[in-house]
Structure formats: structure tokens, C-alpha cells
Amino acid sequence: MSATTIENFKALVKRMKQLEEATALMFWDLRTGTPKKGVEQRSEVVGMLSGDQFKLSVSEEMGRYLAELTQPDVLETLDEITRASVLERKKEYDRSKKIPPQKYQDFVVLTSKAEYAWQEAKAKNDFESFRPHLEKIVDTVREFIELWGYDENKYDTLLDQYEPGMTVAKIDAIFAPLRERTVALVKKISEREQVRRDFLNQEFPKADQRKFCEFILTQLGYDFEAGRLDESAHPFAIGLNPGDVRITTRFNPNDMQSSLFGTIHECGHAMYEQNISKDLIGTFLATGTSMGIHESQSRFWENMIGRSREFWSRYYDDLKARFPQQFEGVSVDEFYDAINLVEPSLIRVDADELTYNLHIMIRYEIEKDLINGNIAVADLPRIWNEKMEEYLGIRPENDTTGVLQDIHWAGGSFGYFASYSLGNIYSAQFQAAIARAIPDYREKVAAGDTSELKQWLIENVYRYGKSRQPAQIIFDATGEEINPKYLIEYLETKYESIYKI
Amino acid sequence: MSATTIENFKALVKRMKQLEEATALMFWDLRTGTPKKGVEQRSEVVGMLSGDQFKLSVSEEMGRYLAELTQPDVLETLDEITRASVLERKKEYDRSKKIPPQKYQDFVVLTSKAEYAWQEAKAKNDFESFRPHLEKIVDTVREFIELWGYDENKYDTLLDQYEPGMTVAKIDAIFAPLRERTVALVKKISEREQVRRDFLNQEFPKADQRKFCEFILTQLGYDFEAGRLDESAHPFAIGLNPGDVRITTRFNPNDMQSSLFGTIHECGHAMYEQNISKDLIGTFLATGTSMGIHESQSRFWENMIGRSREFWSRYYDDLKARFPQQFEGVSVDEFYDAINLVEPSLIRVDADELTYNLHIMIRYEIEKDLINGNIAVADLPRIWNEKMEEYLGIRPENDTTGVLQDIHWAGGSFGYFASYSLGNIYSAQFQAAIARAIPDYREKVAAGDTSELKQWLIENVYRYGKSRQPAQIIFDATGEEINPKYLIEYLETKYESIYKI
Prior knowledge:
Number of strands of chain A: 3
Oligomer: homodimer
Largest sheet of chain A: 3 strands, mixed
Mean pLDDT of chain A: 96
Radius of gyration of chain A: 23 Å
Strand order of the largest sheet of chain A: 1-3-2
Order of helices and strands of chain A: HHHHHHHHHHEEEHHHHHHHHHHH
Strand content of chain A: under 5%
């Protein structure tokens, strides 16, 4: 009896994954080159297939399989992958089933309208016009939390969506020292002489940028037989299946940084997905285990490798050979300093490695208070600006470059932002573990050999996909729970050196 | 009651079309750039979605709707599009339902194996190893014909799949004069001095070929807001929806003809699909009405426009500007002659405009006799070579360049080949009608203005999609039934001029 149920469950999950793959290809195509006049029709097809997938995820059939397979005596007989797959689907099923379909439908409509209103409001610096939309969204999210349930803190339920097991209590404890030390470091840096970066803003022909990006991708171990590089307005990585993980970038003709580091960032996401165990194909475990662990990989490769001294001691000559005029008379040290320039700025997505976490903390603190009803939507512009001044020492002149800058809240995404900083924290913790396992890994990076490094990540992180929880991966790979000290040490060491503090 | 059935029928058909669109995008991606390691998994997704579509097409639900909607008293109350859509689906339903699922499944397996065996046989010039596969395929196709039923000639049932309403009786009558006059003309040409074409086989940088192709596409009226140009090993056009009709080409660095005329050919197919009435979206009428009419458009634009004197009197200077060295000292007349060079050759896909139809007739005659049991598979190599000698005056030295050259039979496609020549015949008939409607259309082509021409085709052919049968389109557009005299006259006038006969 159970054997048939297992097979039926697997077949149903596989079918959902196939629907997801077809939808993902359409999504990729929409972002990289669907002809304008075909978009409307294509969007309907995306809607139909993703609707099918959702219906299967909460179907009576799925409910029956899950009820049987999650019986303790059945669950313990399942192999590790099947058990993880069952539990993953059960969590999704319960979460979706707790929201009445009409309420969810209303929320989709609400956020669609809100995204449009947000665009208008941002363009016109008019928070008031967006406020009623955001109020409704926050109210609905709070209703959802009541339906989903929560233990300690209402906001935990939202965090858990993106970072399973993460809580306000944990993040508060992690972010506090990081915030304190970062604010202090940023202040010290502001008192030092700023580094040069004028040479980064010259003309860099797109075709040359592309060739250099392709070269670096190959050097880092991105597998072009299991992926491709395309262009899109907003760079992303997308895993259609582990044999087809695509990345996109955008080429700014006056700035080679954005394509280069954007590409390395997406390469980190993509290498994670390319190296998930083939045993997980056909299940929803064939993806990254959480937003934070995913982000740890994009940040690790972008910042800890791609913005390291060792990396450029190896590749700066290649860069100069590709752009001889642009880097004439610029030393590798000057280049290294330039790509690591620290400067408090208003916009999160343009922030440097150090100040980035402060942008995240502002959002995290606001979300936490909003969801717990401690502050009101109407107060957001004031609170935002106060926190910017407190943490970064600058104050937005308007809401367009302040509280209105991100689309996330208009889309109803609360609980997501923290993942970015969790990713940075994880990445430094992984780096410390790598340094213990491969003591000469820096010399290897300087020799252009990242293969052993990548292999460590495959064995300790990538291959598991979502079959293990983030906390387990961190503990098994690094020997301890999430710990911000590695990131703090890394940032202080790096930036004290650059700014001669 | 019927109103609900109509809505349900439309929704079901729309859903099938959406599945088809998702599958088509995956097909396009597989041909243009799916990473190698992602192909196997992607193919499974294609199989799942196209299987879903097929199941819906023969579902009990579809059967119920069709039974009700095809009642004469109901049918006559339907609007024109819905009626055409119902009849189109009914034809597919009946055709599919008549083949027992297991028999169809076996045929799919048989042809998959046969395609593999054909590849081997072609590579090794070993017809005998392919013979048993082809025998089984022919036997199965003949069984299918018995299940489908037929009126006059068994082969009619196969022709009807690709060219609704076409029969052996009609084609025999059409092909006979075309064959006779073509054979005579080819013989005369062989006695004249051959034209030059050495200058076409030089180095043509790929990027320049691409730019010229894009220029010509825009000039002809291909809408890049409703399509895109990519590369693939075998060029094709694919209509995902009327707002997204993509074409592909291949760039041979030593031959600008293949990309240029290949692109114009696919442009003809694509302009047809781009200009189908938006009213047909969501039905299976939103495509070309038949293979023959589709091919008439690729051939019309490729040969009657793209290989015309008028066209090059306008664009040869642009071509020379793009490739000044390659065409130095080559006059427009020499260029025109070169792209229209006639020479009997062994391979259909490389054949010139004139001899191409003879290649088709050989295949048509063989298929007709095979299906009617007048010849045996074992006789094919001999018959093939005899016909090549009779019609083209050349004899293949082996089966690789003879009877084994095409994949069609290995895939079980019988009845398809005739469409290519029917397309040529239709295209000349359309051209004659255009000459009556727009007497100065040649001057307009010479002035680079094909818009009126295209508009005539939109109004008389494209907009109807599959909502009208090919015979009706031909009759309404040209005032008569299919008539080979226009193609014969066109070919004789054109080639007698080039070869000074």
C-alpha cells in the first residue's frame, strides 16, 4: 500500500517540478528576449502553468499522500531523500492550505495594484499615495500570520519562509554586534583619505566586457555545458534543472564593475545550483536550501573571492590586456582599493560590501516593528530617515531615494531582506572553515586555482540542495551555529588594511 | 445548455494552445541554445506537456463537446471562427481516436528506432540495414490508413494530413505538365554555357552576414517587435503566438547564400504567422492553413522576390557596401545569374529553384506506389536511381546521396514531400494574382517597397490562418483552383532569360 503511495507521491512531485521547469524557461525568456508583442499572451501561459502547479500542491491527492507518508511509522521507513521531500511538501501544503483561496487571490490582486502604485509613488516622491496600499498589505500579512500561527514572535513566521528555522531572537543577537562594529568602522573610514576610483568610470566596450566576464566565469568553474550567459535589465541566475542553470548580466558601457561583479555574484548562485546532487532531480529539494545560504554563495564568490587581493594578483594582467588604455598607469593595488571603496550611500543595491549590511538592518528593524504592530505605516518615512542618519550618517532628501526605493514591500515580501545579511555572515563563516580545511587556499586563489575551494563547497553545501536545513548545513560545515564574528573580523581586517586604520 | 458547452469547449481548446505554446518555447530553446547537460531533463518536460495536450485532444470531455457542437442544428448557429475551430478539432479527434493508443505508442517507438537506424545506414551507405525498419513503418502506415479510411486512393488519406483536400488525382494532373516542361527546360539549360558563381564562395564574416540579414528582414516587413532572429543547425520559423514568431538561420563563413536566402525563406513563413488575425488566438486556427500554403509563402519571398532582378536592382548596392571586397567587379546581372544558377544535383535540400520540383516528384511517385502496394521497400534504391537518371540526368553513386538522404520516411512522414512543390505552384499563382491586382508591383519591389504586396497577402492569405481551407484560399485569392501553368510560365520566362534560350 505505502509503496504505491510513495511512487504516486514521487510522480506527482515530479510532474509539479516539470511544470515549474517549463514556467521557469518562460520566465527566463520574458526577461532576456521575448518579443514585445508576444508578452501578453506568454504571461497568460505562465499564469496557467504556475496555477496548475499550485493546484497540484494543495490537491486532495497530495493531501492524501502526505497524510499517509507523514505518519511517524511510515516516515521513518523512507529513505533520506524521500523523507526530506515529503516534509518539504508537507510544510508547503500546510502553509498554503491555511490561507483561504479567496483571501490569497485578493492578496495577489492587492500586491499587483500596490506594485503599480509604488512605481508611481517612487517616480513622484509621493509616499502618501502609496501608504494606503502598504497599510492593506501589512494588515493582510498580519492576518496570514494569525492563520499560519507563530511561536515566539509574529515575524518569525515570515523569516521562516526564506530562512527555515531563523527567528527574531537569533537575528537580533547576530545583527547587534555586526551593526555596532560596522557603524564604528564606517565612521573611522570616513575620517581617512578616500581611495581613487575615477578609472573605473571610463568607456568599456560591451563586447570586451562580455569576453572578460566569460573568461572569469570559466576560470571560476561555472560550467557552460550546464548554463549560458545572457543579458537582462536586472541580472539574475535561474536553475531550470541542475544541467541548465542560466545567468544574466547587464553591460553598462561606462562602468565595467557592474557587469563583472554582477556576473561573479550570479555565478555563485549558479554554481550552487549546478552542483546539487543529481539524486534530488524531480523533487523540490533540487534547489538552494534557503535564501540566506544561496546569498552566501553569491556574496562569497563576488566579495570574498572576486574582490580579494589574491584574485586580482592573478587576473589583473588579464584585465589590463583586455582594457589596456583604461588601466594604463593604474597599479593592481589601486585597482583593488577602487573596487572596495567604502562610502555611505542612499541606495541599497549600489552599496558597498561594508555598508550594505546597515541598509539591511534598517529594513529588518522596520519590518519587525511593523509586523508586530509597534509602528505604523504612516511613520515609515520618518523612521527610515532617522535610522539612515543613525547608522550611515546620511539622510535621504526625499522618499524616492529613501523608504520608497525597494519594490519588496509593494510585492508583499516581508522577511526577505534579512537573508542578504545572513548570506554575508554565512559566507565569512564558510571562508573561515575553508581556511582551516585548505590552509593554502589564498595562495591557490592567487595562482588562479579555485577548484579545491569549489570542491569543498560542493561537498559541504551545494550537493545537499534543500535536502538539509540551513542550520544543519552551517553546523556540519563549520562546526558551530551561525556566528557573526567571522564576518566582523573579515570586514575589519580587510577595510582597516585598505584605509590604513 | 449549448452556450455553456461553447464556453467550455473554447476554454479547453485555449488550454491546449497554451500547452502547445509552452512546448514550442522549449522546442525553440532546444534548437537554439539549451545547455547540453540540460537537454535530457528538458526533453522529459516537453514529453509531459505534449502528452497532456494530446490527452486533452482525445479526452472524454472533448468528445462530449464535439458531439454536441457538431450537431447540424447547433453547428449552423455558431459564429464562423467557432464553427471552423469545432470542425478542426473534430477532424483531429476522429483521426486520433481511430488509432488504438497502443498501436500509436508502438509506432512512436518504431520510428524513434528507425531514425537512429537511418542515421547509421546513411553514414555507412547501407540501405539493407535500414530496410526492415522502413518495411515495418510502411506496413504500419498502411494499417493506419485502413483505420482512418479512404475514398479513392489510399495515399489521399496521407496527403490530406498536410494538405487538406488534396488527392492523388489532383496532384498527378498538376505534376505531369510541370515535370514534362521542367525536364525539357533543364535539358536545354544543360546545353548552354553555365553562369559564374565562384564569387559567392568567399569568406563572408558572420557578423556582417547577420547584419545584412537583419537589414533585409526589416526591409521585407518582418516585425522584430513580434519576433527575433537566432542561430540553429537547421533553420526554422516557429510561431509561439502571433506576437512572437521567431526565425533561425545558420551562418556559413564561406557562403553568404545559405544564411541570406534561408533567412528570407523563414521570413516568408514568419510573416504569414505574424499576420494571422488576432481573433484566432486561443484556437488551433491561429496557424498556417496547410503545409503547401505555408511553403508557398517561404518560396514566394525567397525565390519570387528574393531571387528576382527587381529585388537586387534595389539591394545589390547595399550588399556590395557590406561586402565590398567580395563583390568587387561583379555586376548586378552577374550576381543575379549566380544566385539563380541551375544545375542538376543529387541532394534535394541543395537543389536550385528549377530542379527542386523534380526531386519532389521522385519522392511523391515512390510514396504513392509504396503506400498502394505497387512497389516494395526493397526496390527503392533501384527505382530512386532510375528516376534520378530519367528526370535529372544524373545517377547517385551510392544510397547515402540517393534514397537515404532524407529523414522523413524514417520518421514515418509520408504525404509531406508533395507540399514543397504545391507551395511553389501556389506561390506562382499568387504572384500572377498580385500582378493583376498591383500592376506595377515589380517597380515597387525595385524601389524597395514591398508593403502593398505584403498587404495583399495579409488580406488574401495570412489573416485567415487555418480558418479557411487551402483550396478556398487559393480560389478566393486567384479566381481559380490550383493551376501549375503559372509556375511553368514563371520558370520558363525566368530561366530562358538567364540562360539565353
